[in-house]
Amino acid sequence: MTAPATVLTHRELWDAWSRLWNGDFAIADTILARSMRVNIPQYGMPDPTTLHDGPSVASWIAAFRSSFDDDARITGELGPFIVGDYAIGRWVFEGTWQGGRPASATVPAGTRVTFRGVDILRFEDGRIAEYWLSDDQLDLYAQLGVLGDAATTSQGADPAAELRERLAQLSADAGRTLLLKQVLDAAAEATENAELRAASGQESFLALGVNSLAAVALGELLGELTGIPLTSTTVFDQPTPRALADHLWTRLTTAADGASVSLTAALERLETAAAELTGDAADGNLRAELVTRLGALLDRLTPVTERATADKPVEETSAEELLAYLDTRLRPLDDAR
Predict the structure, then answer these.
(1) Phi, psi of 204 (to 5 degrees)
(2) pLDDT at position 3
(3) Where does the UniProt annotation place the signal sequence (predicted)?
(4) Which of 181, 186, 299, 327 has its CA 20 to 30 A from that of 53?
(5) Distances from the Cα of 287 to the Cα of 213, 246, 274, angstroms
(6) How far apart are CA 317 and CA 325, in angstroms?
(7) Could you tell me which residues are beta bridge partners of residue 75?
(8) End-to-end alpha-carbon separation of the chain, Å?
(9) CA dihedral over 194, 200, 202, 203, signed as positive or negative
(10) 231-237 contacts, C-beta under 8 A, 24 or more apart
(11) Mapped to the 3 state alphabet, what secondary structure does 280-302 carry?
(12) Residue 218 — pLDDT band, cuts 50, 70, 90?
């Protein structure tokens, strides 16, 4: 006769949860519900819908621990406080970072880190049915040199300036290769998928699992690294990591009159600032000035032959001139959306 399964108490489940985070992955399928629900922060985290049972949660925890030494530990600092089917407690994590994730870390391997967080567990039928996490990722990332300001303050260097300096010393092919590696590393960090670092760069972002949320994180990571404002739209405008690397190469190496910011970057900043204009009188005057000055700039950028055709009366314009003018205004059918 089979002995009845032992039902763990809420406190025993809490202690087992701590052991799981400290590397005892074999117990995951025993203590976690088959349809567990996970509630975690968006930035730097996987899609919570992919974490729904023992194996998936254990894999996530193992991926986190893989960047730290085997002695890295989570230790209870306050609690747990158990009320009904819920338990809450504060913990502290201490470990030595070995490299890997986050890909944008700038500190050397061997850096010791400490950060804290709060876990909330809900129990059901002798298992952990739901999990809430609130941790100080900002503190952890600051210690790893991920945050631009923190890295600049601690190391006295500007990552974007350093990158431009490195690219200035490389050929176009070598520079694009370096940027491709940076893009793949950032994509791996944004999606919490280390395998992306080994991608060829020819795959589409969608095929690599870069969804809209990951694209936002990817844009932020690359923006901090390059000093170029990037949005999720910018990311998806480039269909593959290699195309995005080529785009960054152009943006980082093309400047006007030695300026540190490319014309394209300056235009994007202007578009962002213009979108924030309100309808008050001051902004109205500024808007009118912008229209005038941008109109003058457009005239300077428009080819002379096109301006001559546009200004000439239709009856004095030849068929060749009209067709040439239309070619500058109409897109080919293949490009029509």
Answers:
(1) -75, 155
(2) 42
(3) none
(4) 186
(5) 33, 34, 8
(6) 10
(7) 92
(8) 70
(9) negative
(10) 235/205, 235/210, 236/205
(11) CHHHHHHHHHHHHHHHHHHHHHC
(12) confident
CA atoms within 13 A on the CB side of 5: 8
Question: What are the Cα distances from residue 5, in Å, to 2, 8, 28?
Answer: 9, 9, 16
- Residue in this structure with the two tokens 């395998």, named with its chain if needed: 195
All domains of the chain, ordered by start, with CATH?
Answer: 10-152 (3.10.450.50), 158-264 (1.10.1200.10), 277-330 (no CATH)
pLDDT, tens digit, 9 for 90 and up, residues 118-160: 999 999 999 999 999 988 888 888 888 876 544 334 444 567 7
Peptide bond into 80 cis (omega under 30): yes
In the prediction, which pLDDT does 173 show? 84
Pairing of strands 32-39, 127-135: parallel
| Among 27, 56, 16, 24, CA closest to 40 | 56
Q: Which DSSP string do the residues of 240-251 spell out, in sequence order?
A: SHHHHHHHHHHH
- The per-residue pLDDT of the chain, averaged, comes to 78
Task: List, in sequence order, every residue forming a beta bridge with 90; answer none if it has no partner.
Answer: 78, 118
pTM listed for this prediction: 0.46
Q: Which amino acid is at 245?
A: A
Q: Is 235 exposed, middle or buried (0-12, 13-18, 19+ CB in 10 A)?
A: buried
State CA 105 to chain mean position distance.
13
Tell me the CA distances in angstroms from 213 to 184, 187, 209, 268, 272, one per residue in order: 16, 12, 11, 21, 21
106 vs 120: CA distance, rounded Å = 32
